[in-house]
């Protein structure tokens, strides 16, 4: 039935603003990325969620693991489905965003491109099939995956040796998921990035789908990676997306490919990184406001937005904790809780935190903050370190897992950040520098040991391969 208007009636028209793009893309399927996606899927009027991940032919996941994401909290399982997948994004990078080795002479796999890596994987598979048991490459398997066949195992083995691989397990096309190719080239409005900071260079694969109207939420440990992203991924400030950083205190770990145990409830502190001078919330892009509203109305995440000065202090506090627990457990090869049962480690912790405290209290951007000296007092930082170590006493740090697998670590964005800031301020962080060098030396040692065990194109390997 049509609507009629009397003559002379004044009609006021209002231009309807375009609704924000509600789809949220998630780059990375680690424990935090899966937990965030699962939590977003449980809110009323849930947003459409798409995972950006890699895919390899010959990899077959069980239908059950493809169909849903499962989060276990206090022994109660909650599975949710309805996620979209873009599965054609390459996830192997020949160079990390920031080399934790710091050497001008990269290791052999730093110089091997993607095609060559897969060729080596095929040769490794052939050698393993015909070799004696003692020639089989020992691999430190991740507890989150399951072996699914010979081809799967062989490529996983080569992948673990190649230390520059991003932690981006692949979703395959399966029941309950709609899959699409990256050829769609759809514009990305909201992107949650949970891959380790060392692998943020992978963002270059999708940088053409992002612009100044996009928003990126970074959920990584460490500081200093934003500068690297600007330098290597988004060098043009005019087209650079809006950045939001998140400080996560939730404790979660994957037990299977898409199963997460949420063992410790926490919160997420969010802060918008300003392009220039800090501005009011209404000056943000539509996508940034939408993503902030969506994340903060998710009860499980307990996310709260803070201004720039407060989020900087939260990040520094979290960084101080990670600068102690991650490298010490990696060097000593122990669980987090074991740090508290050793007097010698306690002495090292105090010296490391004394340097971190001095740098944090000397930062020019914090000089006008009230109560700065007390907030970053070494004793207060030590209290937080001990508390986190107790809460996660049975856990192994991500850095320890990376070291065992021969992967690059994010030490450059942990202790390396305070070392660089200390140099700018004229403060010598000798303990942090020594700890950083020890982690890098251990990583190099493990990588070299694994490389020596890898069958190469020698006469013996050719004979064993039947050539």
TrEMBL record:
GO terms for molecular function: 2-dehydropantoate 2-reductase activity; NADP binding. GO terms for cellular component: mitochondrion. Residues 9-20 have a biased composition (Basic residues). The keyword Protease does not apply. Transmembrane segments: none annotated. InterPro entries: 6-PGluconate_DH-like_C_sf (IPR008927), 6PGD_dom2 (IPR013328), Ketopantoate_reductase (IPR050838), KPA_reductase (IPR013752), KPR_N (IPR013332), NAD(P)-bd_dom_sf (IPR036291). Residues 1-20 are annotated as: Disordered. It comes from the Eukaryota. The keyword Oxidoreductase applies. Residues 310-443 form the Ketopantoate reductase C-terminal domain. Pfam families: ApbA, ApbA_C. Residues 183-274 form the Ketopantoate reductase N-terminal domain. Keywords: NADP, Oxidoreductase. Belongs to the ketopantoate reductase family. This is 2-dehydropantoate 2-reductase. It comes from Heterodermia speciosa. The lineage of its organism: Eukaryota, Fungi, Dikarya, Ascomycota, Pezizomycotina.
